[in-house]
Amino acid sequence: MTEYNLILENVNVTLDSFDLQDISIQIPKGQIVGFVGENGAGKTTTIKTILNLLTPVSGEIKIFGSHNLDQKPAIKEKIGVILDDSFFDENFKIYQIEKVMQHAYKNWDRAYFSELLKSHDIDKNKTFKECSKGMQAKLKIFLALAHHPQLLLLDEPTTGLDPVSRQEILDIFRDFMDDEKSILFSSHITSDLDKIADQIILIHKGAIQFIEDQSTLDENYALLKITPEIYAELNNFEFLAVLEQSHSVTCLTTQKELFRREFPEFEMTTPTIEDILLLFKKGVH
Q1: For the residues 12-37, what does the mean pLDDT come to?
Q2: CATH code reported for the domain at 4-212
Q3: Which end of the chain is more exposed for a tag (fewer CB within 10 A), N or C?
Q4: Cα dist. 122→88, 115, 119, 166, 174 in Å?
Q5: Phi and psi dihedrals of 209, rounded to 5?
Q6: Any idea where the domains of the chain sit in the sequence?
């Protein structure tokens, strides 16, 4: 039986110019879940709602089986967070930030934090402001990891990093994982999620459009690139998303083997997460 570190059921949030609509997701133990969508789709709003920084008008959120409104210190101790905006004074030196975090978390691991800084050439005596954008991104990640959380909530954690540094961070996330831990990984760098995610959730205009295991995407999903004339003849088939252009039509299907068998002449590829995101953003679904 699957166990979950995080469950959202029919969560609705109303803001001045944006709504989250009936958000229902489950983050299993032992999995990294990619959370994708264009800017303004609702990824950050969802994470802030999980953390009680925004209040839903309806629905339920459970973390480790407890309601999120009842987040006792023992529960908060098991959550690591990276948000896009910093939560500390940028004039603080890194060793000063560490002292604040030590008071916030009983399980703060000074040796592990120092090891992470040393392996990435980050000087504790620098202020946050003096660090490069890439160093700042790494520091946020290390601050989220150093108390050994069970659930990581990551909002664009690899933004600002070069490809080599991003790969190093993905390796750290892989090393972090075990059968009890989970990561909700919000990112617009979909190639990172292609490498690391076990499951993908796509949000568009405040509503969940798509939830699927990465293995199922690889096995069953396909992109068809066909002419408008051929597309018109396929009206008996249902597609998840369709993007019509002047001389071609791109279709997303979950019936890869059927189309491979019945229409071997079609141009067919396995979609990346970016392909799916673009189809849901620009196409009809």
Answers
A1: 95
A2: 3.40.50.300
A3: N
A4: 18, 10, 8, 16, 21
A5: -105, -20
A6: 4-212, 222-269
